[in-house]
Amino acid sequence: MSAADAVLPLLVPAAALAATWAARSPRQVLGVAWLCVAALWALGAVLALRPLGAWDAFSRWYGLLVLTLGGLSLWMSIHYVGTERTRGEVDDAGLRRYFLLFEAFLLCLLAVGAVANYLAIWAAVEGTTLTSVLLVAFPGGRGPVEAGWKYIVVTGTGGLLALLATVLVLVGAGVPLGAWTLAAAVLPHVARGGRIALEAGLVLAVVGYGSKAGLVPFHTWLPDAHSEAPAPVSAALSGIKLVGGLYALLRLTSLASAAIGPVWPHALLVMTGLLSLALAAAAVPGQRDLKRMFAYSSIEHMGVIALGAGFGGVALLGALLHMWTHGFAKTALFCGSGNVRLRYAATGGPSVRGILAALPLTGSGLAVGAAAIAGLPPFGLFWSEWLVLWGGVQAGEFLWVALALAFLLVNLLGFGLRLPDLLLGRPPVLAGDGPAGPAAEPAASLWPIGLALAGALVAGVALPLALHATWLRAAGLLAGGGVR
Predict the structure, then answer these.
(1) Is the pLDDT of residue 190 over 70?
(2) Does the structure show a pLDDT above 50 at 437?
(3) Distance between CA atoms of 116 and 362, rounded to whole angstroms?
(4) pLDDT at 132 over 90
(5) What is the pLDDT of residue 266?
(6) Average pLDDT, the chain
(7) Fewer CB within 10 Å of terminal CB in the chain, N or C?
(8) What local confidence, expressed as pLDDT, does residue 160 receive?
(9) H/E/C letters for each residue in the chain?
């Protein structure tokens, strides 16, 4: 792998991090953030139009996701944290600390796809955990700190297991010690006595990286972390960070599949995918807080991706597409919940009602985003979920497909039961309301929602057209065990 190609995408968040550190005023901090948004998207355009030789198809697919959704989340951060500073909820030092952490978070997220060594991928995933823990606990208080503590305990333990899993899988697959790169592992085999190590490593990988991705039963940190974190952080956690955990997991399961055959690794992915769908189906209908509802929905959709990877074939294409379609829809929903939080000082409870009357555009965005995340046509999630289910049918997994479809329908019902209570009704009198009605919604708070919804609408068709070769090659790479 060319070192220059690997480092180039990391320069944008690294430069933003250095500039934010050197900034002398909140205005300069926010200015750096705006420049970082523009640079992330410019780099995304370069990576989409001119593939870097150092990035294989799967890392490119993931890297473009980070650049696109990371820019949207950072844009929302500028409005969200800037508003909290204006209200006195965050001081100047807190504002600077937030953007330092967020830019470091983006740097680690990009590094997951940029590095080409299995241990370096593990280290980058750990970096995403450490930086996002501090963002979850921002700006402090009992709830955020408790959520951050639970997050680090569960995923920190998972990280240690993921490290052991990485070593066991590589040793069991006969990858030479000291050459644990993606390129060195293109023709794996079962080392002498290595099958036990491979199978133990696979189980530990599902536990370790599954905790990073929020897969059941290693999801216990996720609802609290998503509900307590600032809304833009929740968007980045759901749309990107969870996918980073799956990225690392699929790298290892792909390598193991090439060495011992796909049946055992795929069965683990199908099992954890179905468990995640089942847990979400049981939890979503009972949620009365927007962000907790969306958090459990994230568990559901990580399950869909794991299920698609487990089914293989066409379903694997659906799983890759679902990384994007889910990311767009969930970014819109969490950004919308951020506007609700700024207006109501909460995202759930008796006081949160009549969102459509108090925040007409945000409420409309939440309604449309809920339709998107539930997989209704013509949104992109309908097409990616259809590919996953159809791939399961082609694989002959009729029972698992039927169960998955039933769980998806229950989640759709859950959104239909809970959202009207929050969106409709007479809103309470809110600070800033005038005699003519509610105060205007700032355009800066609406643009990220609108762009994310547009992505959720067209991604199911536009991405396979625009990135067709990358999409197919990424699936072929995962199915083939790492062959570029």
Answers:
(1) no
(2) no
(3) 41
(4) yes
(5) 87
(6) 88
(7) C
(8) 94
(9) CCHHHHHHHHHHHHHHHHHHHHCCCHHHHHHHHHHHHHHHHHHHHHHHHCCCCCCCHHHHHHHHHHHHHHHHHHHHHHHHHHHHHHHCCCCHHHHHHHHHHHHHHHHHHHHHHHCCEHHHHHHHHHHHHHHHHHHHCCCCCHHHHHHHHHHHHHHHHHHHHHHHHHHHHHHHCCCCCCCCECHHHCCCCCCCCCHHHHHHHHHHHHHHHHHHHCCCCCCCCHHHHHHHCCHHHHHHHHHHHHHHHHHHHHHHHHHHHHHHCCHHHHHHHHHHHHHHHHHHHHHHHHCCEHHHHHHHHHHHHHHHHHHHHHHCCHHHHHHHHHHHHHHHHHHHHHHHHHHHHHHHCCCECCCCCCHHHHCHHHHHHHHHHHHHHCCCCCCHHHHHHHHHHHHHHHCCCHHHHHHHHHHHHHHHHHHHHHHHHHHCCCCCCCCCCECCECCCCCHHHHHHHHHHHHHHHHHHHHHHHHCHHHHHHHHHHHHHCCCC
Q: How many domains does the chain have?
A: 1
Residue 131 Cα to chain centre, angstroms: 15
Check residues 71 and 420 and name the one with the higher pLDDT: 71
pTM above 0.90, yes or no: yes
Distances (CA, A) of 247 to 178, 191, 384: 22, 25, 17
What integer pLDDT is reported at residue 3 of this predicted model?
Answer: 56
C-alpha–C-alpha distance, residues 417 and 391, integer Å = 30
Residue 253 belongs to some domain of the structure: yes
Q: Is residue 51 part of a domain?
A: yes
How far lies 52's CA from each of 251, 421, 426, 470, in Å? 19, 48, 53, 12
Structure tokens at 468: 């067709």
Range of the domain at 466: 3-429+439-480
Name the range with the highest mean pLDDT among 1-10, 195-204, 208-217: 208-217
List pLDDT tens digits, range 288-321.
889 999 999 999 999 999 999 999 899 999 999 9
Which residue type occupies 169? Answer: V
Distance CA 21, CA 163 (A): 32
Answer whether residue 358 is part of any domain.
yes
Question: Distance between CA atoms of 407 and 281, rounded to whole angstroms?
Answer: 6
Asked if the model's pLDDT at residue 429 lies above 80, the reply is no
